[in-house]
Design goal:
CATH topology of the largest domain: D-Amino Acid Oxidase, Chain A, domain 2
Structural class: alpha/beta
Largest sheet: 3 strands, parallel
Shape: elongated
Bound molecules: flavin-adenine dinucleotide
Order of helices and strands: EHEEHEHEHEEHEEE
Radius of gyration: 21 Å
CATH superfamily of the largest domain: D-Amino Acid Oxidase, subunit A, domain 2
Helix content: 25-40%
Strand content: 15-25%
Oligomer: single chain
Number of strands: 10
Distance between the termini: 13 Å
CATH architecture of the largest domain: 2-Layer Sandwich
Number of helices: 5
């Protein structure tokens, strides 16, 4: 195990492996340590919903990057992360909720995220099993989908390793301090 690296990433969940992957991609000498197994934290419990659009302009752009990245990651690693673009239907029972969706739509338009408004009849035509008698309508984002959080983490870990990143499991960071020239991390 290396004892000196330019970047040490602590934690092998979706976020840590992504950071390690992207640092590796930039040519940084990087090591990731995980106290247990990769994906054993929150990542293991996530539903994996990937709503491309949300009300934050910056987050929407990060999500857009992720969608493109997940496609290229599969090509790069040969691992299928279960990415499925199935669409996301936000249904409204009140005019106030529809109004909220009109606000969403204006943000989506600014970010270049496609959307359509659907009437209850259009919803029914697309998904006959839905009961629409109490609906006012819906906002549909066709580019939203889901991914398997554990599988995408493993794919990023493989991609990171391919870029020269070391990944060490069963190592826990217990503390760190600044020596004046670099950070020193204590691990067990
Ligand atoms: C029930 C549920 C459903 C969710 N659904 C969604 C969803 O649909 N869509 C979505 O985008 N997000 C969802 N999330 C949120 C998502 O799971 C988290 O945002 C994401 O997994 C966080 O990743 P992470 O890498 O930061 O954390 P984690 O996956 O928790 O990873 C942290 C890792 O760090 C390790 N660690 C901690 N301390 C140390 C240490 N001192 N030394 C070494 N290792 C250490 C842990 O063992 C762990 O493996 C959901 C979360 C939950 C719980």
């Amino acid at each position: 195990m290396k004892t000196q690296v330019k970047a040490l990433v602590v934690g092998g969940g979706a976020v840590g492996t992504s950071i390690a992957y992207h640092l590796g991609k930039r040519g940084w000498d990087t090591m990731l340590i995980e106290r247990d197994e990769l994906t054993s934290g929150s990542t293991w419990h996530a539903a994996g919903l990937l709503p491309l659009f949300n009300m934050s302009y910056a987050t929407t752009h990060i999500h857009k990057y992720s969608v493109d990245f997940y496609k290229s990651l599969e090509e790069e690693t040969g691992l299928n992360a279960g990415f499925a673009v199935v669409g996301n239907l936000r249904m409204a029972q009140t005019e106030d909720r529809m109004d909220e969706y009109r606000l969403y739509a204006s943000t989506a338009e600014t970010c270049g995220v496609p959307y359509v408004f659907m009437s209850p009849d259009e919803i029914k035509a697309k998904w006959p099993l839905i009961r629409t008698d109490d609906l006012k309508g819906a906002l549909y984002h066709q580019t939203d989908g889901y991914i398997n959080p554990a599988d995408v983490t493993m794919a990023m870990a493989k991609g990171a390793r391919q870029l020269g990143v070391s990944i060490e499991r069963r190592w826990q960071a217990d503390g760190f301090h600044w020596t004046g020239s670099h950070w020193e991390v204590t691990c067990t």
